[in-house]
Amino acid sequence: MRIDKFLKVSRIIKRRTLAKEVADNGRILVNDRVAKSSTKVDVDDIITITFGNRVVTVKVLALLDSTKKEDAGNMFEIIEEKRL
Fold this sequence. Notes:
By secondary structure, the chain is an alpha+beta fold.
């Protein structure tokens, strides 16, 4: 699954266009490598996202094409969240 779609479906980022923009600006790392919006993610990948003044690191637990709001949190696990 593409990183932009994963971020949208898991509700880490609300809109896919915003996820694409964040990725294309180099603010997303997948397994410590800069990711483009088309980068594929798999289960157990580590994603690091820079949101303004904070950095969130998550581990991919599941890849689902669509989810309900209640189930979106089961797609990832927050490993670390820190402020810059």
